[in-house]
């Protein structure tokens, strides 16, 4: 069920996670479908989707009540229209020095290292939204068997290119930074370079 609250007179936030564990994310395509639908209107200054919410910035606060009621009534009918997406193949080295959390994760999930690698590498992921760092894409599509809370104690430095999982998501660290995700591998794929024509290739 979608919830709505008024963040300010001209800002609406819709979310669907109230009372749910962090691993039970609503399908992010729900919010992407709302985004696509609202983009057809000129009523919005900005529209910001995340894994479990979407924030609408209205030009005219007089339109707030209309959009609040309209979306709550119709959002289940919205269908996400997938564009001609680019498929990226991500060569990944799993385990050892490249995936420092893989062994501990194996015990936590009660899966062998090979089972984790097979599951993680056998699915196609969608970059559902960006955040945290330039080039950091939140990837949906992680198989349920690999859903896991973030680390209790975050790492002070996660290397660039680290492939990691947390909650119901996977991600690749575009640069070295602190982080609380479980690192299971590493890739040489560059996700953010200022000198690229397109700094963020995904």
From TrEMBL:
<keyword id="KW-0067">ATP-binding</keyword>
<dbReference type="InterPro" id="IPR010016">
    <property type="entry name" value="PxpB"/>
</dbReference>
<feature type="domain" description="Carboxyltransferase">
    <location>
        <begin position="2"/>
        <end position="202"/>
    </location>
</feature>
<dbReference type="GO" id="GO:0016787">
    <property type="term" value="F:hydrolase activity"/>
</dbReference>
<keyword id="KW-0547">Nucleotide-binding</keyword>
<dbReference type="InterPro" id="IPR029000">
    <property type="entry name" value="Cyclophilin-like_dom_sf"/>
</dbReference>
<dbReference type="Pfam" id="PF02682">
    <property type="entry name" value="CT_C_D"/>
</dbReference>
<dbReference type="InterPro" id="IPR003833">
    <property type="entry name" value="CT_C_D"/>
</dbReference>
<dbReference type="GO" id="GO:0005524">
    <property type="term" value="F:ATP binding"/>
</dbReference>
<protein>
    <submittedName>
        <fullName>Allophanate hydrolase subunit 1</fullName>
    </submittedName>
</protein>
<keyword id="KW-0378">Hydrolase</keyword>
């Amino acid at each position: 069920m979608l919830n709505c609250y008024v963040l300010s007179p001209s800002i609406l936030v819709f979310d669907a996670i109230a009372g749910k564990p962090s691993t039970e994310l609503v399908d992010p395509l729900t919010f992407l479908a709302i985004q696509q639908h609202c983009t057809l209107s000129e009523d919005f200054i900005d529209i910001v989707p995340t894994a479990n919410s979407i924030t609408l910035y209205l030009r005219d606060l007089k339109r707030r009540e209309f959009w609040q009621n309209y979306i709550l009534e119709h959002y289940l009918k919205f269908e996400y229209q997938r564009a001609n997406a680019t498929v990226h193949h991500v060569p990944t080295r799993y385990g050892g020095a490249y995936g420092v959390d893989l062994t501990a994760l194996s015990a936590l999930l009660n899966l062998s290292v090979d089972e984790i690698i097979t599951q993680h590498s056998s699915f196609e992921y969608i970059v559902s939204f960006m955040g945290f760092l330039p080039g950091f894409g939140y990837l949906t599509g992680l198989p349920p068997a690999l859903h896991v809370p973030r680390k209790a104690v975050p790492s002070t430095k996660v290397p660039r290119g680290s492939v990691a999982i947390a909650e119901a998501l996977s991600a690749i660290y575009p640069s070295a930074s602190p982080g609380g995700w479980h690192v299971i591998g590493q890739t040489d794929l560059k996700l953010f370079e200022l000198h690229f024509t397109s700094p963020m290739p995904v």
